[in-house]
Amino acid sequence: MFRVRHLFLLTCLFVLTACKVELYSGLDEQEGNEMLALLLSEGIAASKEKGKGETVNLQVEESDLSAAMTLLSRHSYPRHQYATLDDVFPQGGLIQSPMADSARYSFAKSQGLAATLATIDGVLTAKVHLVLPEKDSGNKLSQPSAVKPAKASVFIKYNRNVDLEAYIPQIKTMVANAVEDLEYANVAVVIFPSIPNNTHL
Known about the structure:
Layout: H1 2-17, E1 20-28, H2 29-41, E2 46-50, E3 55-61, H3 65-74, H4 85-88, H5 98-117, E4 123-131, E5 151-158, H6 168-178, E6 187-193
């Protein structure tokens, strides 16, 4: 009797210590696999299960939750979800003013460029800010004014093990070619290396 009770207590203890909690849910398959591989490479026992639709969920042991979140955060996971043109200009939406449409177009363009930059090997986070010249309203009575040139500012956080600085000219060229009337000289790119894993904040 004592042996059975002892075995039962050990079983309960094992179940409690092996209890897993949800780390992130609603991830796309590729990002979920990348996060899972990172966790496992650092010795954190993680698992993946199917979520809603085409998404996946990640689970870790409760005792590893804090370490897992810290590790993923240092590698900029989960990645920022960029808006698409359809998100900004939904079909059937209300008619907007020309100024509002211009602002939404600039935002959608920025999001698209940032999403493209984020696919470069070594890039953890990318943000693009565009300043586009205002379109002529067509009002003949308005006084002519000097048109300010289009400008772009690019922020990139990258893996310090990658020599991203060597690609800055290509990044500037890509952004300049993607935006109408944007000159190469008016594209500013600022890059920041990630914090090493062994650095405590």
